[in-house]
Amino acid sequence: MTSGTLYRLSAFTTTPDGGNPAGVWVGDTLPDPETMQRIAAEVGFSETAFVAPAAGADRTVRYYSPEAEVSFCGHATIATGVLLGENDGNGTYRLETLVGTIPVTVSQRDGHYEASLTSVEPCSAPASDALVSQALAALKWAPDDLDRSIPPARAYAGAWHLVLAVAEAQRLAELNYDFEALKALMLREGLTTLQLVWRESDTVFHARNPFPVGGVVEDPATGAAAAALGGYLRSAQLIPVPATLLILQGAAMGRPSQLGVKIPTSGGIVVTGKAIRI
Known about the structure:
Elements: E1 4-11, E2 20-27, H1 33-43, E3 47-52, E4 58-64, E5 69-70, H2 74-88, E6 91-97, E7 100-109, E8 112-118, E9 123-126, H3 129-139, E10 153-156, E11 160-166, H4 169-173, H5 179-189, E12 193-199, E13 204-211, E14 216-219, H6 223-235, E15 243-249, E16 257-263, E17 270-277
Parallel strand pairs: 2-3, 4-6, 11-12, 13-15
Antiparallel strand pairs: 1-2, 1-17, 3-4, 4-5, 6-7, 7-8, 8-17, 9-10, 10-11, 12-13, 13-14, 15-16, 16-17
Helix pairs in contact: 2-6, 3-5
């Protein structure tokens, strides 16, 4: 039996009742997949990160939702970065994940630890009409709800997301979707979450992220989707770069979260957030 220590943190917040909770397990060697899956299900958060070895700048990380392994998880990476900073000091940690090496730089700001991850190279493609229509049906939305200045897209920065932008804030405020229908569609299409956004201004977005494939109705802060959105906005030339965005998420769930997204002219997208132990 592999031994390790399980921590619980909430990412993209400085208060225990905000942000997105994540488990972070740290040990000298990773447990076997069945054990990691069992621990993630017992923790019950949308994701738990498993980190080994217990010391050093180079670590291997695997991510599990309560139902399945996930290729990459942003909020659990931020939680991991903050935990490593608290336990082992500021600096840059290189996390070897299933999608590649993710550098995470940890520092202290305003009395809190803050972590910045740099995603793998993002990519995106227009979403097919069939995918959009099926997603809208599951969401119980109408085509007229969409903001056509940000066309629907499949976007990737470690995991695939469907980006749907709405024209009105009220549409985003009301989320009552068909869980099983959306889950089946997402499994068929290889999607981790839906990145539902409303653009408040050039630099401020509001987001909600259904996550039925992880057994969770909604994610209160989704770093991987934030990175994917940044990459899509850049590649589709929907935003001048370099740029820095603020994504506000989780308020509708009572878990307000703030995600900083830095979009350079090329390369990976930088997602920044704080985290706190819970």
